[in-house]
Design a protein that fits this description.
Helix 6 crosses helix 10. The strands form 4 sheets. The chain has a 7-stranded parallel beta sheet, sandwiched between helices. It has a two-stranded parallel ribbon with strand order 7-10. Strands 8-13 form a two-stranded parallel ribbon. It has a domain of about 220 residues: NAD(P)-binding Rossmann-like Domain (Rossmann fold), CATH 3.40.50.720. With about 325 residues, the chain is α/β, with parallel strands linked by helices.
């Protein structure tokens, strides 16, 4: 009997997880989703309802995670409390979900004989290191409970690879954006918030002076890299940056969105938030070498796709 092509996507009803689930279904794979719907939404998978096996459960519940691993070949571990500010406000929840939950996923995967776990790590692990592009060899300096938790997840992945032989790949995401990112949460991504504010004639809020910069990465690029990371032979045990290698300040971002949408609304500048870093930029050369990764969609096109989606769905 051939090798199973069953994929488990934890957090598969969330923003990035739902896009990964959709890509897997579209190429004919069998998909199981595990999501507690704390930050995910069943509507993100509505068009796939008959194509996936959905389990509403929490990764903090080891027994449920263990059962969800039955017959699974590859795990995409996207489930998390995905927010720096929320981790500052709710550090216990952050630790339980992002550290204990990740440990549960890895332990259950090991016990079930899963081939590989692809882990959604975070660029926040780098901390504040100026504006130069971040390299995977750089010493991490996490500045928030969220960043610490994601870094612990990377370390656990590497240990499970070295000690137990479970293949793992940790992908450090740099500020992912795109359709299905929930703008209603106070912890949601800045692009979804800017877009919905502008479409509703509200003043966008910028924390700080707006000259802080990020490497904004369209979700289709992240999905492509995840699918590559699931199979790339040399990627096991590695930590890999995923971004665009393009520096954009929040003021530049807002100006581009105003141009696309056709608005001219002055932002409201407010005090900087605890745990936020000043600059973040990815060196993606390792992703190119190990995964054959090249961003498929540039920032301007990604912003246009995202604006169009919010116009049609808000």
């Amino acid at each position: 009997m051939g090798e199973s092509n069953l994929y488990l996507v934890t957090g598969g009803a969330g923003f990035i997880g739902s896009h990964i689930s959709e890509a897997l279904v579209n190429r004919g794979d069998r998909v199981r989703v595990l999501d507690n719907l704390m930050t995910g939404n069943r509507e993100n998978l509505g068009h796939l309802a008959n194509e996936i096996d959905f389990i509403e459960a929490d990764i903090r519940d080891f027994d449920t995670v263990r059962r969800a691993m039955d017959g699974v070949r590859i795990v995409f571990h996207e489930a998390a409390i995905p927010s720096v500010p929320r981790s500052v406000n709710e550090p216990v929840l952050n630790h339980e979900s992002n550290v204990n939950g990740t440990f549960n996923v890895l332990l259950a995967a090991r016990d079930a004989g899963v081939k590989r776990v692809v882990f959604a790590a975070s660029s926040s692990a780098y901390g504040e290191k100026g504006i130069e592009a971040k390299l995977e060899t750089q010493l991490p300096e996490p500045l928030s409970p969220y960043a610490v938790a994601k870094l612990v997840g990377e370390y656990y992945c590497q240990v499970f690879t070295r000690v137990y032989g479970l293949e793992t790949v940790s992908l450090r995401y740099f500020n992912v954006f795109g359709p299905r990112q929930d703008p209603s949460s106070p912890y949601s991504g800045v692009i979804s918030k800017f877009i919905t504010d502008l479409l509703n004639s509200r003043r966008p809020i910028i924390f700080g002076d707006g000259e802080q910069s990020r490497d904004f990465t369209y979700v289709a690029n992240i999905v492509d890299a995840n699918l590559r990371a699931a199979e790339a032979p040399e990627a096991s045990g590695r930590v890999i940056n995923l971004g665009m290698r393009q520096r954009t300040t929040l003021n530049q971002l807002l100006a581009e969105l105003q141009r696309i949408i056709g608005t001219s609304i002055a932002p409201s500048y407010q005090e900087s938030r605890a745990g936020d870093i000043r600059h973040s930029l990815a060196d993606i050369s390792l992703a190119g070498t190990l995964l054959g990764y090249r961003p498929l969609v540039g920032l301007a096109d990604g912003l246009r796709h995202t604006v169009n989606w919010y116009r049609e769905n808000q």
